Amino acid sequence: MTLKNLIGFLIVIALLNVGSYSKCYAQKLRTDVKLQRALEDAAKNFRGDVGIFVRHLKTGKEAAIHADTVFPTASIIKVPILVGLFDKIWKKELDYRQELLYSDTLYYGGSGLMQFYKDSAKTDVSVLASLMITYSDNVTALWCQHLAGGGQTINALMDRYGFVHTRVNSRTPGREDARRAYGWGQTTPREIAMLLTKIRLGEIVSQTASDRMYRLMTNIYYDEGALSQIPGTVASASKQGMVNASRSEVVLVNAPSGDYVFSIMTKNNTDQRWTHDNEASELIRTISSLLWNHFEPKHSWKPFKERF
């Protein structure tokens, strides 16, 4: 090697090292150290597995705990199903106001209202989407999953958007083992938070479709968890998912100082009571309050003590 080539080689190595250092430094800058410590302290005594992801959209600052670990979604899977439904609508394979007939053969228990409809009652796609998100209706969610083309179609769509862990498992051929492990669906705290973020930014299906999906997600009946720690005058898009051993929420807050998104996911929970003071529910409220007061110190707010 000539002296000239050697010098060139050393310059390239130096530039690569500078680039690597800059990349690492930028990564450090994205971590909100104060918030990271506060989250770790809040979650340290939780009896179960917990994953958290937080990002302030304006500053890009993040905090995370097991953010890339796979968790059961429970009803949070209804967000990917909603995306699959709107993809079909955008392609004109469905119409948002398309009339449908409810059949009692579609009955499925759990949360929701459509299970109480009379056989042959008229409804439409927009009602299905609204009930699925607002009231976490299981009948309409399974119906929407079918209308969207099934779990395989929805999973391919998630893959297309770069979400490699977010999957529908139930009623999806080839995902039987995953269903036994995670239930209806699975995701990570980071992926589900970023899916909601992309909807907020108009990057899922289309800007128009994203806007309609976001509007649906700002109209949530189940507001005694994370939403109870955010002032009622502040719009927030969210979805909740709860089964015995797993309680989770994903929320995007349109805060005065800039939007922030967070997801709190739990599994293998010791406390499986269906009470307001369930340990996971308390953790979700604690973290939601912590985040509001961290990002909005000028708008500090304490929830009312009374419950309705």
Automatic annotation (TrEMBL):
A single Gene Ontology biological process assigned to it is: beta-lactam antibiotic catabolic process
Taxonomically, what lineage is the organism?
Bacteria, Pseudomonadati, Bacteroidota, Sphingobacteriia, Sphingobacteriales
Annotated ranges, domain Beta-lactamase class A catalytic: 51-266
What GO annotations for molecular function exist for this entry? Answer: beta-lactamase activity
Reaction catalysed by this enzyme = a beta-lactam + H2O = a substituted beta-amino acid
**One family name in Pfam for this protein:** Beta-lactamase2
* Organism, scientific name: Parapedobacter composti
Top-level lineage group: Bacteria
- Gene3D superfamilies registered for this protein in UniProt: DD-peptidase/beta-lactamase superfamily
Record's protein name: Beta-lactamase class A
